[in-house]
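Hey Z.,

So I finally got round to the zinc ion thing we talked about over coffee. Here's the setup:
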Amino acid sequence: MTPSVPPATDNRPGSGADLLLPVPDDDGAPFWEYAARGELRVQACAGCDALRFPPRPCCPNCRSFAARWQRMSGRGRIWSYVLPHPPLLPAYAEQPGYNAIIVELAEAPRIRLVGNLVTAADAPLNSVDPARLRIGAPVKAVFHTMPGGVTVPRWLLERP
Ligand SMILES: [Zn+2]
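And the result:
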């Protein structure tokens, strides 16, 4: 789940080819596979049912190694956000005024995912007016396939 710079397979301006992409590891690979199917899932312990994120092999609650992937509604609230300022990586400097948000999931408020609030799944990262960002605002997940093929969750305001 460590971000890295992907290989430059598409260098057209605005193509997003140089945006940071997730690098799935063994524990996290199912998260991205479900995302590619338009499903937001998190690990659930098969022993005690505790939900956990980020993905990892052992339950921090009961220490079981047995787990399943439980589908979430995709609904949550903005727990926090930032508006990154320069200096930015070039691909991000092309989209000034973009946001990075932390979303707490409706079913599991202790689980928080980092992402971007956008106006549509494939909209630019700066498609939401920063003045619209509010802590506590209800959001819902959508899925965007990045250059290179990985699909990431992004977030829409429930009340645009
Ligand atoms: Zn457990």
